[in-house]
Amino acid sequence: MTFPPSHYYSSSSRPTTPGHPPPLPPFLARWLEESAADFRAGALLLSGLRFAVFGVGSRAYGETFNTAARNFSRWLRALGAVEVVPLGEGDVDGGDLEAVFEELEWEGAEGGEGGGGGRRG
User: Fold this and answer.
1) CA 7 vs CA 50, 57, 59: distances in Å
2) 1: Cβ contacts below 8 Å, ≥ 6 apart
3) What pLDDT does residue 32 have?
4) Backbone dihedral region of 7: left (phi > 0), alpha (psi from -120 to 50 degrees) or beta?
5) pTM
6) Which of 117, 80, 75, 120 has its CA nearest to residue 98?
7) 76 and 46 in contact (C-beta within 8 Å)?
8) I want to staple 36 with a disulfide (CB 3.0 to 4.6 A). Which of 51, 75, 116, 117 is the partner?
């Protein structure tokens, strides 16, 4: 599946401090968190955005495993964005990240409302 570069934002980095976003997107993380909590922003702020989040972390962090990815997903949805593929969580200690990524439900991600209903393949 390919998306035109003008239609997506991608951030990739390694797991860092448990439960915190990696150092590359701190502004975006702070803006999303503050906007999602700000009643003035409203639930329609990002209503034209369709997104997918695939977190890569380590289960060695326990309860904070992929917390940053979960937060990004929650904040985007709170601002009205549509999650087209269910949140994916990869474990660097637990196996093949590519296989976990490929198992996500990609059908519907390029059009329609929301993902689900099928497998990419």
Assistant:
1) 9, 25, 31
2) 106, 109, 110, 120
3) 92
4) alpha
5) 0.71
6) 120
7) yes
8) 75
Which domains can be identified in the chain, with CATH numbers? 23-102 (3.40.50.360)
Residue 81 CB partners (closer than 8 Å, separation 6+): 46, 47, 49, 50, 51
The structure tokens listed for 78 are 């709170």
Say which amino acid occupies 87: L
At 26-64, the pLDDT tens digits run 788 889 999 999 999 888 999 888 888 888 888 888 998
54 in helix, strand or coil? strand
Sign of torsion over alpha carbons 32, 34, 35, 36 = positive
